[in-house]
Every structure is written in C-alpha cells, then in structure tokens.
Amino acid sequence: MKRYIDLSDIGPVRKARVGRDHPKWKMPTAEVYVEVPKNVARSSARGSPLTSFRDDSKQLRDPEKSVLQHKNATCVTPRVNAVTQKLFTQALRVAQLPADLVDVPLEVRKRRVHHTDPTSIEWDDTSMTIPNHYGRVVIDGERYSVGDIVIVEPGYDSDHRRARNASSHEARCHDNALADTKWFCQISYMFEVQGASHGRRKMFHARWLQHGSQTLLQEAAHSRGLFWLNACDDVPLECIFSHCNVCPWRSGEPAPLDDEAGDPNHFFIGPTWDSERVAFVKSSAAEDDCALRKCKVGKPCVSCGIAALEEEREEWRTLPDDTISCSGVVYHPHDFVYLHTPGQVIGLLAIVQILGFIPDESGAVSQVKIRHYGRYDTVAVKHSRDEGPIPRDNRRLFQTGVITAVPVKYITGKAYVAGLTSPWEKEAFVRDNDHFYCDLWSESLRPASLDELEVLSPKPGVLQCTICMSTAMEAMLERDRLFKMFGPLKGLELFAGAGGLSTGMEMSGIIQTKWAVEFSPAAARTFG
Ligand SMILES: [Zn+2]
Ligand SMILES: [Zn+2]
C-alpha cells in the first residue's frame, strides 16, 4: 500500500545549514511527495507519530498535474544558489540567512604584481641552506619564500601540452578573472641553473594547484577554490605574477559563500585533485612527511615524494621462498592472475596460472612461466545451436595446454579459480568478484567449436595455491557471517524515479532499499 504525504501539512521544515548545525536555519514550506514503504505504513497504524499526517492522495484529483504545475518556486539555500545561479535562466527563490550567519568578507591584502619582466631578481644570500639552494628571493622589492603560494603566468613549465589544454579548456570561471588567465603553485625550493642562452637563471620548483573549474566540478566550482595537484615542474622565477592570498579550508567546514565581490586574489585551498582516479583525496600530515622523506637533500616536494613512493610500490620485488611482490601483493606459484599485454586497450583481461618464476642473470625474477586459461563465453558467442543461442557463463573457464613465458610486469592482479562441479558450490563461489570456475579442457586457447571443449579430468584438475585460496575462502565466510549478523544494508533512494537504481542494488544482494523519495506521483507509483 503506497501513500503520499504532503509535507506542507507539517509546517516549516527545519534544516541545518550545510556543515553548521544551526537550529535557527529554516526553509520555507516545501511541497514534497514522499513514498511511504509498506513497513512504515504498518507501523503508523500501530500509533507511531506518522498517524497524525493527513493522507492527501485521495483528495488530489490529478496529483501528477498538481506536482508538475505547482505554484511554489523552487527554494534553495544561499549556498546552493551561489553554485547553481549561473546554470539556470530562471531565478531561484533563496531562503534568507539569519543575520548572524552571514559570512563577513575577509580583508584581502593588496599584492604587488609583476608581468614576467622584473628588473631585478635577487637572492637573499642569508637564506642559502645548502650550496645553490635558497630560502628567499626578492623580485622588484617583493620578497618570496619557500612554502609561499604564488600566482604565475601560464606556459612556463616543461609541459607545453598542459598550457595548450589550459587555454582551450571548455570550463571557464567567469567570476574570477585570475582563474582563467593564471596558474597557481607553491614554491617548494629555489635554485639556480646554467641556461642555454640566458646565462645563470634563477628557478624554483613549483607544486601545482588547480582551479576548481578545471576539475570535475567545472561550472559548479567555487570561484575561489584551488586544489592541490600531484604535479610539479621547475619554472623560472620571472614567471611569478604575484603572491596568492590563501586561507585554509579545513575538512568538514563549509566553503565561504561564492557571492563576494572584490579582489579576485583571494582563494582557499581544498584537498588534492587526482585526475587519474577522478577523485578529491585528502592526505594527512604524516603521509606528506612520508613523501617528503623520499626527496633528495635540498629538494623537498610532496608531489615528487608521492611519485617516488608510487614508483617504489609498483616495482617488482623478488622475495625469498620463491615468491614475488608488487604494490603490496605477494604472488606464489599456482596463483591465478590477470594478464595485461601491451597494446590491449579494450576487451577482457586474459586469465593465466603462474607455473614458475624465471630469474634473470642478477637473480631477480623478470619472467613468469604461465598456463593459459580460456573464457567459455568467447567460444560460446561464436556458436549457436539449432534450438537457440547457447547460455552464457562469464565465470566459466577452460584449461588449455598452452604454456608460455611472459615478462613479470604483464601481471595485473589476482583471480581465484576453483575446479568446482556441483551447481550450488559454483553459485556460492562465483558470487565474489574475481572468482571463476573451471570444468573444461582444450589443447588450444582458441578452439574452433564448443565440441573441442572436453570435460576436465579431475586429476590433476585445477591445482591451487593453498595460501591464496584459503584467504579467499576465509574472506567469503567472514562476509557471510557479517551478512547473517546484520543483514543487507538498508537503502534510502532520493530522486528515485521508477526505482532502477534500487532494483540494481537489490540484485547485488548487499543493499535492500527501504525508503525512496520521488517528486512525481506517477513515477513513484511505478517504483518497485
Ligand atoms: Zn616536485
Ligand atoms: Zn598464492
């Protein structure tokens, strides 16, 4: 039994301001339709507070029309308005902030600017820490120190493609004149080099920052928000435009409202933008220290340190007792692994079993001897029987007689393959990602037809790495134990529509949608 409750019946909705739990914050009455799931409807019948709500669904002659033609303007908080006003042609209704919550504009320090043609760049010789490394420099009378955040003219780093991309980027920040025309960085250290044509050249190592409009946020970015990048370059000191006024933006605190006029040279710095992972990541002071310890003497740079740590993690190491490791994962003989061969851009990764490690002259493992396994679906897809298409099974593999050696760097993660035969065992095992089963055999990796696939002989069958297999089984048992103890996660879906997302989530078995909110009554009735 589904019901819709008009929340306007229960008066103004109280809502805490984002990031600040302030009881004074009030939103005007909103017209929101909520689908009440069966269990809540039942509990309301037993006398929960929900029984006091009036069920309006019978009184609405055409609820769909009523919702879509509602007279209330969309009402948003000032913060949402600041982000979205440039995205809509229609003005939004903005809830008023209580006077004591209005942000007071910060006083911005006026900064001297240079235009890549300073008349003097002088080292502060007293700041030389080690030969040829300086802590401070004076450019046309303005002092700059290691650790300062500065605004620079773009195009001075070694990556010219970056300069081109920046100037042609579609996302633009119209609210901050500096965001589109300048770059931002921190001075990590300063030094001097012998230039090809300029004589001695004064340089600094820059750890880059990116304006939010150049990240995933694009138009929705705060006009004063900068994010760290794990990228750095050596650039000449003459490209410095000015000091950058920055204030910290602590995790969990709201950003300043994006409606301040005034000096554009006023920014705050958020976490690190990782464009490869398409994520904003926060690194702790301890992690930054760890990265800095990887830097050479006199060249402290968090980005360089992180790159060194990554390189170290991705190195293949030969361990005692006939094992190798990479990125913290230890590989043993008989482990099943995915193989990523150079040039493979699309398609499923090959699955192979490690038969042994082949050391080079230095004793380090450089190659692995492997047995190839084929995917049943790649054979099944080419054939169809008279009675119709052959059912697919993307977890089914066939063992082959193909044995080769490949460079160890082609290995890219572990798979788990079991020689299971009973259907219930198979079903339980392949519930986990990276789990497969193998019950077939073919001499060739590319059999001409399904008829070439034979039933795999149980001896020797599929040999296992007992260490990895027991770890995988323990993880499965632990997950089952937790599932029995707590049941599936309970989900609330917002903007639910007809519930496609919930259907997918429920099919995973991990999440059970208990509540859903949808604006359109017709869509809500279709839900589930
Ligand atoms: Zn660096
Ligand atoms: Zn193993």
UniProtKB/TrEMBL annotation:
SMART domains xref list: BAH
GO molecular function, one term: DNA binding
One family name in Pfam for this protein: BAH
Family annotation (SUPFAM superfamilies): S-adenosyl-L-methionine-dependent methyltransferases
GO CC field: nucleus
Domain of life: Eukaryota
Residue ranges of domain BAH in the record: 142-284, 329-453
GO biological process, one term: negative regulation of gene expression via chromosomal CpG island methylation
InterPro entries, alphabetized: BAH_dom (IPR001025), BAH_sf (IPR043151), C5-Methyltransferase (IPR050390), SAM-dependent_MTases_sf (IPR029063)
Family annotation (PANTHER family): CYTOSINE-SPECIFIC METHYLTRANSFERASE, DNA (CYTOSINE-5)-METHYLTRANSFERASE 1
Name of protein: BAH domain-containing protein
Originating organism: Pycnoporus cinnabarinus (Cinnabar-red polypore)
